[in-house]
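Thanks for the sequence, V.! I ran Glutamate receptor right away. Repeating your input here for the record:
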Amino acid sequence: MNLLLLSFILIWHALSVSSTKSHPHVRIGAIFTLKTINGRVSKIAIEAAEKDVNSDPRILGGRKLSIAIHDSNFSGFLGFIGALKLLVNENVAIIGPQNSVMAHVLSHLANELHVPLVSFTALDPTLSPLQYPFFLQTAPNDHFQMVALTHIITYFGWREVIAVYSDDDQSRNGITVLGDKLAERRRKLSYKAVLPPDPTATSADVTAQLLNIQSMEARIIILHTYAKTGQLVFEVARKLGMMTNGYVWIATTWLSTVLDSSSPLPLDTLNSIQGVLTLRPHTPHSTRKQAFISRWKQLSNGSIGLNPYGLYAYDSVWMIAHALKLFFDQNGTISFSNNPNVNGMGGETLNLGSLSIFDGGKQLLDNILNMNMSGLTGPIQFGSDRSPLYPSYEILNVIPTGYKSIGYWSNYSGLSVITPEKLYRMPANRSISNQHLYNNVTWPGNTTEKPRGWVFPNNGRQLRIGVPNRVSYRDMVSQINGTSQVQGYCIDIFLAAIKLLPYPVQYKFIMFGDGHKNPSYYDLVSMINSDVFDGVVGDIAIVTERTKIVDFTQPFIESGLVVVAPVKRLNSSAWAFLRPFTPLMWGVTTLFFLIVGAVVWILEHRKNDEFRGPPKKQIVTVLWFSFSTMFFAHRENTMSPLGRIVLIIWLFVVLIITSSYTASLTSILTVQQLSSPITGIDTLISSNKPIGFQQGSFAENYLNEELNIPKHRLVPLGSPQEYAIALDRGIVAAVVDERPYVELFLSDHCRFSIRGQDFTKSAWGFAFRRDSPLSIDMSTAILSLSENGELRRIREKWLSEKACGSLQSDGTKDEQLQLNSFRGLFLICGIACFMALLIYFSKMLRQFTTHKHDSSSNSQPSTNIPIQTFLNFADNKQEGTSHKKKFKRKHEDTSSIPCSK
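Predicted structure:
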């Protein structure tokens, strides 16, 4: 029995030893280009992490982590061969590859063999977890970096950006994301300069692209490439004078790795990147991070500096180690099985049968994705999109002494001068007003003044400014006879605004039109979109159709379409006193005089002796009382409270009416009045008569398309003289034109007048290309001209009106007081009369009922019908109501007798 037990123990021990020997190490692979900065830093960090993991037996339970690092040496082919070697040797995970080109290829192998690929440098945003479920990015991918760049560009107010990038998957797809994000914020990626893949780009390749950029307008350049190509770009840019004032260079994270790992930089390199902005992945400060930084000089032997990707490399090893610990705690075993997809494919020659599937790969991947640990880079967790939580960057500015930080960007709160980890404790606030960076930025050319981000293209080529060659209203804009110079109201404003720009502008005026008729302003503006002109200066109305193809400046004068028609003077006549009121107003006022008189008579008839007597006398009394209230000259006293209330309200109405009448009559008798059958655009539309418009103006399209006036009614007119002839001869009933032109026209033609109000609201401005920064700067200059009074002075110089220009009354009809203006007063008075009568008749009916009851108690029957009885009762004087009146009259009679001495 003891011998059997001893044999069993020996057999179990032998199997255990055999099992241990079969997998004494847990193998992990790594693929990097070791001649690059990130490759060298990652190798040192990975080896340090491997040593630290193996020094802690609690992690892998006595197993040892074995990491094999393969050098791809800038070759996709060598990288692929290295990956095959690692997979044949049954590695449970691979750290890398270093670039996204290989990541796209190797992810297919990882999917097939269930081996997790963990990369912190292959950050192509198109490496989708749906397509590549076994590929995991442990550092923020370039999607977030491009969002950060977009926020920076928006913060500084730049509108157009040029991208310079290497022609590979990671750079190309990153720039595509940048273009999309800029478009979301109404910014534009105006040009893409493509360079050969790193490190094959030459000076000639870079020079050719930078020379193209020099001839363009935008001066904001995003450089998205790698260290070798990036440094070459800056060297060539400095030689071409592109690292001077006016340029803005923003490099992606490759430059921050150079600054961190290659310090101190050679003087030539440092000089070529002065004023550049760059991003660095932000990792929060911690004791563990500081301790590792202190170890780094010993680990690297001072050969290279540490950058954030070294921290990500270290954390990636520990992340896989913790995932393996959980894997073993879950009773997972490292085992591989044959891949049925490679059977029968000539595996004897290619040895494809050695590519086995890692049976626990899915379980290990899930452990990594569910990781919640703290590393050198901070908390390590993955979101639902399998990207690290709270990606963030530090924004660096290169200066002569090295670099300085000007702020941070995080996906949680946007731009801030506060570290992201502090903001995570607060509610997210990404509003524009909450975006901040330090303002002590040093830009290329060693200036602290923010570059405007653009220049005139083609190395200072003169701006081609289109000017309408007008044949009428030449005060607006005109060519000086026999010269190439132009003058006029609009030209003076343009020249004054140009002087206020903070930079010199070269320009030349180019006339547009044949000089025989006014040109089409829509065609003129369209020339900007056709690249014939860079801008248009003149009396250009800002209308919807034009704003769709160009950008306008701030308006420098208000405008709007008005109607001009012949008028005749209305001289004073014997009946001028009737003009203040319309006939309807006269009729309603007269009616209310009679109504109020009748109401007061009804309310006073039973009580007041002055409202009693024969019918003829009462009619005269009512008429006299009614119209005498107009002059507050009524002699009859009112005794009933209701009568007094009605009278007070009516006297207030009369006061308002007489005051208005007096003011209106004064105006009519002292101001020259003009009359015309055309009172505005409405009567003009309904008249079916011809309508004149200025040739080349937008008025034709507006009248036809917006107001549905047939084209056969529209008559083009070329000059103020044609306006006058057409109006005098009745060729057109009226002319529709913009107010500034009309005011000039009326200053010389006093027999015409503006009828009605402006029926459109518009303005004049200068037109430039879409998204041209010049339109913004010119708008600012025009606002300055308005504030300092220069706009008013220029207008007085060119558009001052003559004496008759002020005779533009809209006629008697507009001066007359309408019933609508007094409708409220009449309504109040009418309601007061109605309520007074209602109360009076209710009270009298109650009295009549009492009287009828008293009469029926007498034996004397009444032969009158009820209505007649009621009328008799209403006509009778109310008893006990006039004793005071009688006493008053008696006193007056007595006092009139002379006293005897």
